[in-house]
Amino acid sequence: MSVDPQQVSGVLTDEESRTLDAHWRAANYLSVGQIYLMANPLLTEPLRPEHVKPRLLGHWGTSPGLNLVYTHLNRLIRSRGLEALCVWGPGHGGPAVVANSWLEGSYTETYPDVTRDAAGMARLFRQFSFPGGVPSHVAPETPGSVHEGGELGYALSHAYGAAFDNPGLLVACVIGDGEAETGPLAASWHSDKFLDPVHDGAVLPILHLNGYKIANPTVLSRLPEPELDDLLRGYGHEPLHVTGDDPAAVHRAMARAMDTAADRIVGVQRAAREDGATERPRWPVIVLRTPKGWTGPAEVDGLPVEGTWRAHQVPLSAVRDNPDHLRQLEEWLRSYRPRELFDEHGAPRPDVLACVPDGARRLGSTPHANGGLLLRELPLPPLERYAVPVDEPGATLHEPTRVLGDLLEDVMRGTADRRDFRLVGPDETASNRLQAVYGASGKAWQAGILDVDEHLDRHGRVMEILSEHTCQGWLEGYLLTGRHGLFSCYEAFVHIVDSMVNQHIKWLRVSRRLPWRAPIASLNYLLTSHVWRQDHNGFSHQDPGFVDHILNKSPEAVRVYLPPDANTLLSVADHALRSRDYVNVIVAGKQPCFDWLTMEQAKAHCARGAGIWDWAGTEDGTREPDVVLACAGDVPTQEVLAAARLLRDHLPELAVRVVNVVDIARLLPSEEHPHGMGDFEYDGLFTPDKPVVFAYHGYPWLIHRLAYRRTGHGHLHVRGYKEVGTTTTPFDMVVRNDLDRYRLVMDVIDRVPGLAVRAAAVRQRMEDVRLRHHQYIREHGVDLPEVADWSWDG
User: Fold this and answer.
1) Confidence class of residue 648 from pLDDT cuts 50, 70 and 90?
2) Residue 660, pLDDT score
3) Once rounded to an integer, what is the mean pLDDT over residues 765-780?
4) pLDDT at 794
5) N or C: which end of the chain has fewer CB within 10 A?
6) Window from 108-117, 131-140, 194-203 with minimum mean pLDDT
7) Is the distance from CB of 125 to CB of 200 less than 8 angstroms?
């Protein structure tokens, strides 16, 4: 930002005030028109009921405030030559942001049929919240947007994510006062403790207090101003207040606040970048208090509307049927004096556009809001550099995530100059065995540092905050603006962001259908510290259900991987980091795990997604298998292979096939998921009529749900987590949930025809071991020696 922080700013001339007001009135007119009109956009004739939409959908209450912010951001960008992005937090501000995009021309450039004339205005109005049109929220369809307004709480964390590693970018963030009451938003105020004034851009929060939510007052709007200031200063911000309902006065106050904020931001960045200042700065925040539904009907049917919760949605709800409502609507629209704002062809007049920036500096045209345009390929090194040697299956053990950490360290090092990769997680990087990354980057931190602290770095790109919401929001903002990242989390607690990932998946699904939206880097989750190895944390940390949640979502956008060892984890992670427009969920353990496949075998197996491990079974190729032992996940894989070894010892005549599944969507039919298998392929792998005993990492019914249409579903028996957990030994967890090797052998005996009688003694021996296990762990506190010391000797 090229402005002297000492300059005197914020004084509007009368001419500037007049043109800013013209732009604001035009945006208000267009916002009202989108909510109500389907014809007669310029009011060239008296308004009639048939000009009004039969279903009135949309939200007026927040729109005039957003229009004010958009107008003044335009002025700031144009006057200072800024590169800026705005995150529109109030979820129902769609009419305002679309209106401004149309005024500045970015909307017509994106959608050429919505021209900047009367015909285009009519199309703009008709399409809003109309079948076949556009949503009522700020959505992927809206030029300049990176934030879906359908759910509240994420605006500020998205804004900070966009600012990270974007040193020349100003990210304005409008926060609705309803949104400000949410937990994710409350936590995200702390993001300023992670914003590096040297390498990152700036975030300018604009807290818009219009007083009400849908039907209730908002907490922050009712706080006395000194108390609110104390709160914001406690978060590390210096508040600038803009309050009023007189447009002329508010324009002058808003311009002054914008200029003062910009000057302070320049001062902070100059001190850090040129003078070497290291103290954590106090960043500005604008507190904007204007009436809800400002400039709309003051009263409807004898009840106050403007400045109350009644202005939230559609202030005049019976326009087609109530002549008085129709009259009020026409008066409301004409109060903006549209003939002063649009010429006879419907184009905005020059005064309206006086504040609008040029080209890519327009908020609707910034490439930062279409991050795929800025995306570069990650410098991913060859996997062989990190692969663990596997001379024979199951002879060695490694911690898979520790192996992955070495790869991530080099990715972090390879992006040190370009700064477009970040690792985020809630205080768990080292706990999840990824601490190798600290060799290339420390943990971002702008607050105080003590001698006892480790790996804290004012310029770091490892992000840790004990708020999964904030981690998710940061990474989404980072990805949506054209960068790469990975979110590492304990498996049980990633559920905290269930609702957030819903919105991101919906964003990706819609974006895929918009040819002007360039693909972005995938949102990658690494879920570790998983359900089967919570030895000291116990039941509270045991929940593998995030996979179920993800697989309910759009098949085109979601992928779930359960690599069984270190090399398969490397292969899956490499694929995920290279992919675009997906949400990839990788579930992998951090505890020592057997190495089953060489790197070459791992790549091939991961490419297939599911396959037969012929070295583990007892098929001889002369007949069909008697039973299929299937597995997905690292612990289930170990238990299946141990069960296969027991069957080889005790029932050598039994033909056993072992199938491992890495890509869980492979179980779906091909017509339901792009990775799904056709029926012939599925039957060839699992057989159409033989018993299948499936050991699965998570809740068993997910496998049944994925495979319910398969021919052999009636022969499918799944073992998995049954919501039975505690602080106990590793093997006791699988025993408690009937996923252990001895239980699997018993399942085979129970389900292969003829074995129940012929192998009754074997089954009894398996049951006896389980009983002995219970006694042993209670006496010794550790697992049976034959379990603890087991290794594959196939």
Assistant:
1) very high
2) 98
3) 95
4) 67
5) C
6) 131-140
7) no
User: DSSP 3-state assignment of 109?
Assistant: helix
Q: What is the mean pLDDT of the chain?
A: 95
Environment class of residue 394 by beta-carbon count within 10 Å: exposed (0-12), middle (13-18) or buried (19+)? buried
Inter-residue contact 720 to 696 (CB < 8 Å) = yes
Question: Which residue reads 């970048």 in tokens?
Answer: 273
DSSP state of 380: P
Q: Does residue 188 contact residue 160 with C-beta atoms inside 8 Å?
A: yes
Helices then strands, each counted (H, E), the chain: 25, 22
- What span, in angstroms and rounded, lies between the C-alpha atoms of 330 and 318? 13
pLDDT band at 793 (very low <50, low <70, confident <90, very high): confident
Q: Provide the Cα torsion 354, 360, 366, 372; round to 10°.
A: 160
Alpha carbon distance, N-terminus to C-terminus of the chain:
66
Length of the chain: 794
In 3-state terms, the chain is what percent helix, strand and coil (to 5)?
45, 15, 45
Could you give the C-alpha distances from 725 to 492, 520, 534, in angstroms and in order? Answer: 12, 39, 9
> How many CB atoms are closer than 10 A to CB 16?
17
Q: Are 1 and 270 in contact (CB under 8 A)?
A: no
DSSP per position, 480-519: HTT-EEEEEEEGGGGGGGHHHHHHHHHHHHHHHT-TTS--
3-state secondary structure of 300: strand
Q: Does residue 57 sit in helix, strand or coil?
A: coil
pTM for this prediction: 0.96
The burial of 276, by beta-carbon neighbours within 10 Å (0-12 exposed, 13-18 middle, 19 or more buried), is given as exposed
296-to-37, 292, 300 alpha-carbon distances in Å: 16, 9, 10
* C-alpha–C-alpha distance, residues 736 and 703, integer Å: 20
Nearest to 659 by CA among 702, 705, 608, 731: 608
Nearest 10 degrees: CA dihedral of 701, 705, 709, 713?
-10
- If you ran DSSP here, which 8-state letter would residue 355 be given? T
The residue whose two tokens read 């594959």 is 792
Three-class DSSP category at 533: coil
Q: Which helix (H) or strand (E) holds 574?
A: helix 566-578
User: HEC states along 317-341?
Assistant: CCCCCCHHHHHHHHHHHHCCCHHHH
Structure tokens at 608: 């297939």
For residues 661 and 677, what is the distance between their CA atoms, to the nearest angstrom? Answer: 12
